[in-house]
Amino acid sequence: MGLIEDEVDEVSRLCGNVLAQSKLITCMSSLIRVDINQTESRQLTACLRFPADYPRSKLLLEFKSKTMSLAFLERFTKICDEKATEFVGKPQVMQVLKFVDAYLRDNPLCIVTEEIFNIKKLLEGTPGELKPRQKTSSVGLTAKGGSFYFSAKFYVPELYPVQRIDWENCDCNLPLPLVRFVNGQAKEIARQCVEPPLRQSSANQVFIPKPSLERTLRFIVEAMKGFPEERCPACGELSLPEDSTDVVMSEDDGRYVIRMFCGHVYHQACLRKFMSEPPFPPGGKICPAPKKHPRSDRRAGSGKPALSSGNELCEQRVTHDKWGLNDIKSAEAKWAHQQARIRELEEVIDFLQ
């Protein structure tokens, strides 16, 4: 028997034992094909062919996968091709297969290679950064906008994408209402990627889990970019101060910010004044912002910006769990009472003068 026949025999005897989560599909001198199924996402088929002058030349390698991105497979093929160079002149098949299996185990983030690439591209030209950590199967994100930042470590689970990414704590210097919104909405986006909606459009529709890393991180990056540029719809000034150290944290301060369900951020004093002064239209006040907000609560979970022509008014009712001032009669009565008090004071002043 020649060297190739010996290796074919060795692979047929040892492959299942050496590579625990593998299945030998084809084992011939013309082609060796092995399926490696480590997890739901780390599934790969390795095809190995012997060149005419083997073993003086390295094996010819090809990888296929239904769960891993083409970008990763192309990069992985180059890595394995370089590794195979070390085995030239010696039996190569089992050495290459063991390297493939070990690489997939030691690099669990290989299943999100394309998502990581897309987020890094989104961060280009910004002070933010993305740090993949293979040992902990996590991705550290720092997203920035002006002097504000959001930082957290996102864990990619073993059963991704069937399971969503997760994170426990975040470090953020936005006002508390906005921290709650960014963190809470990001978790909702990740949840909707893996859990079917309570009401599906069709009874025969089958829910398929979607990758949650890019959708979640994209929302955070774009939200952090947008907040420093947002203006209070009532006064037209920036909702947040340019210097993050000047952020108002006291709920009693008029410059304390409140985010409405339409997505726009008001100063508390501006909102109070806007809601308490006429006109009081039927159905309640309408947000005066000159355009719809890309992160309105009506678009919760999409992780995508709203499609807008750029000149559409917000036209959503100004509602909030703390500011549900939509009772027209009560608002008008309160306004009338305030005006009466002002007139009384003016009359007293005129009398005294």
Q: Which word captures the global form?
A: elongated
Spans where pLDDT lies below 50 across 5 or more residues: 301-309
Helical percent range?
A: 25-40%
How many whole angstroms does the radius of gyration measure?
30 Å
In DSSP terms (H or I, runs of 4 or more residues), the helix count works out at: 8
Q: Main sheet: which strands, in order across?
A: 1-2-3-4
Tell me the total number of β-strands.
Answer: 10
How far apart the termini lie comes to 121 Å
Q: H/E element string?
A: HEEEEHHHEEEEHHEEHH
In words, what does this structure look like?
The chain is of the alpha+beta class. The chain is built from 8 helices and 10 strands. The protein has a 4-stranded antiparallel sheet with strand order 1-2-3-4, covered by helices on one side. A hairpin with a 4-residue loop joins β1 (22-27) and β2 (32-37). α4 (113-123) packs parallel to α6 (213-226) and α5 (176-194) packs antiparallel against α6 (213-226). It starts with a helix and ends with a helix. The model is unreliable at 301-309 (pLDDT under 50).
Secondary structure: elements and pairs:
Blueprint: H1 3-18, E1 22-27, E2 32-37, E3 43-49, E4 60-64, H2 70-84, H3 93-106, H4 113-123, E5 129-133, E6 138-145, E7 148-155, E8 170-172, H5 176-194, H6 213-226, E9 257-259, E10 265-267, H7 268-276, H8 328-352
Antiparallel strand pairs: 1-2, 2-3, 3-4, 5-6, 6-7, 7-8, 9-10
Helix pairs in contact: 4-6, 5-6
